[in-house]
Amino acid sequence: MRKVLIALLVMSSGIVSAKTPAGKLLDRICKLQKVGIMIGHQDDPVYGAEWKWERGRSDVMETCGDYPAVMGFDLGAMELGSDKNLDGVPFERMREEIIAQHKRGGIVTLSWHPWNPVTGENAWDKTGNAVSSVLNGAQKSRFDGWLTILSWFIGSLKTECGEPVPVIFRPWHEMSGGWFWWGKDSCTPEEYKQLFIYTYKTLVEKGCDNIVWAYSPNLGVDDFMKYYPGDEYVDMLGIDVYDFGHNNKTYTDNLTRELDTLSKYGSEHKKPIALTETGSQQLQYDNWFTEVLYPIVSRYPLVYVLFWRNAHDNPKELYISYPKHPTAPDFKRFHDLKNTLFVKDISKIH
Ligand code: BMA
Questions:
Q1: Chain segment 26-42, per-residue pLDDT in tens
Q2: Fewer CB under 10 Å: which end of the chain, C or N?
């Protein structure tokens, strides 16, 4: 009897749970979806518009007083055995920052710009039929090796107490554009699906139970589900939409159209949705965050919006405010909105 009581107590207190780390993150994401929109930033704690590699810094935190709720990092070049990613971020530092973000109560998302395995050029080299080569051809064993390296890194994301850190992984993103070796110009939708499923199955078999899987095309409504590998392999749906031309009207039209589609598929497939990459390149309009972006995104049940990186070595790649930038007061107002969530807003919600 005593044993039964203890078992019941333990179960009701939530100590015992059959859920994987990924399952728990997914539950948390669904809970947070009802609270507001998490704000995210790529490479936030490793460099910013005017600094690099210093610890404790963040353009977001220095502008509005809090870290982003979601931090994004990219694994590109890890597959080659490099100790730094394609943008020079050391993987050891990346691991440290992923764990730190988890410990402060935030969420992490990973993207991957792997090299073209056939030509040895970067992710933007679309030649060589690389997808068919990694699936059934000469590059299969090399690709298996790449997935093993990724599984080691993702499996090594643990706190010092050994608690696994769950991550949202969105491999093979923007496939509906024609600029990557896994994109629409370089493989068939069928091959793409096989690539996604093979990646999923391999990492799961290798024990990565801390991955929430995201499917994330780029804008182009007609193509949204064309490459969809299936509900079994996908936990979240996303879309990447940018304003590259400093045109608020075009961005508003594009984003509205894409988010209409995304939310339709999200509810049909019962998957949470996110704006997985966005930003207005070089931030030319001072009130962009509250006057252009917010009126659109606030109409949709988005889990998060991730702004792309503030590249320290390329002023063109500026997507989020920093203290000296003319958009800083507007970003502060954006932070203060009830519906936008930064890390302190979510750290207690599990
Ligand atoms: C792209 C650009 C590149 C960068 C890559 C991976 O969209 O920002 O400069 O190398 O993402 O971060």
A1: 999 999 999 999 999 99
A2: N
